[in-house]
Amino acid sequence: LLGADGLGDKGPDAARTDTTAPTVTIAPGEETRFLLHYIPDTSGSGKTYTKLAVTPPNETVFDVMNLDGLNITVPATTGNAPDV
């Protein structure tokens, strides 16, 4: 999770699951989709993020994705976020 200013406002890493995803090949110009599950923070003490840094499995390079106006608010924590 990233804040509006990008990499300078990094949030907690999402917890990974052991769910096995199918292997797909994405050709140049094609797109894919994924689902992000999170429990929104409603206590008023959460942190709001507007971008995602996505690292594919078995890769070390990530891509920053704008959420196109969607805001993700999670509890203000450090380290991995078990609810994301």
What distinguishing features does this structure have?
single chain, 84 residues, two-stranded antiparallel ribbon, two-stranded parallel ribbon, globular
Structure commentary:
The protein has 84 residues and is mainly β. It has one domain (1-14, 36-84). The protein has no helices and eight strands. It has strands spanning 2-3, 6-10, 13-14, 47-49, 51-54, 63-66, 72-74, 80-81. It has a two-stranded antiparallel sheet with strand order 1-2. Strands 3-8 form a two-stranded parallel ribbon. The chain has a two-stranded antiparallel sheet with strand order 4-7. A hairpin with a 2-residue loop joins β1 (2-3) and β2 (6-10). The N and C termini lie close together (10 Å). The mean pLDDT is 75.
| Structural class by helix and strand composition | mainly beta
Number of strands: 8
Number of helices: 0
* C-alpha-based Rg, rounded: 14 Å
Give the overall form: globular
Q: How many strands, which pairing sense, and closed or not: the largest β-sheet?
A: 2 strands, antiparallel
Task: Report strand order across the widest sheet.
Answer: 1-2
Question: What is the number of domains?
Answer: 1
Q: Helix amount, in percent?
A: under 10%
Mean pLDDT: 75
Strand content: 25-35%
Unreliable segments (pLDDT under 50, ≥5 consecutive)? none
Spatial separation of the terminal alpha carbons? 10 Å
H/E order of the elements? EEEEEEEE
